[in-house]
Design brief:
- This protein is an all-alpha fold.
- The chain is built from five helices and no strands.
- The relative contact order is 0.15.
- One of its GO terms (biological process) is methylation.
- GO terms for molecular function: methyltransferase activity.
Length: 143
């Protein structure tokens, strides 16, 4: 049992931490759902394995602030679970998910969208950040 405590460093989970975790989960789920509804309204695919099947470049609503609100929402929900549990080790899956998305999934999607939409996608990529919205306007955000 002592070895388990060393392997799973836990933060004492307080009511405030659980409240923040709940709000983060609701916000993250809202981002993911809102992004999915934007794809649905544009009548385009939300399938991350087939970005070449998209029929529209969605750049309005949530997508005007961040290029990946669905993924941002997924990472937020994953992080909220670790917060709810009060587990630092519980953050490992969230960090792994964010890293995998950032290094593998998103670049593949960006390549497919750039190939399909060309200049329109490159302009969008320069104007809108990949992850976290910025309050600064006119700053280049492409990687």
């Amino acid at each position: 049992m002592a070895a388990q405590r060393l392997l799973v460093p836990a933060v004492r989970s307080s009511t405030g931490l659980k409240l923040m975790a709940g709000l983060l989960a609701i916000g993250g789920a809202g981002l993911a759902l809102g992004a999915g509804l934007s794809f649905h309204a544009a009548k385009t695919t939300a399938n991350p394995r087939r970005p070449e099947n998209s029929t529209a470049l969605v750049t309005t609503g949530l997508f005007a602030r961040t290029r990946n609100p669905m993924y941002l929402g997924m990472v937020a929900v994953s992080t909220s679970y670790a917060m709810w549990r009060g587990s630092l080790l519980g953050l490992v899956p969230s960090v792994a998910l964010a890293c995998w998305l950032d290094q593998f999934q998103i670049p593949a999607e960006e390549d497919a969208l750039a190939q399909k939409y060309g200049q329109a996608y490159w302009q969008y990529q320069r104007a809108v950040p990949r992850w976290i919205p910025s309050t600064e306007r006119g700053k280049t955000h492409a990687r």
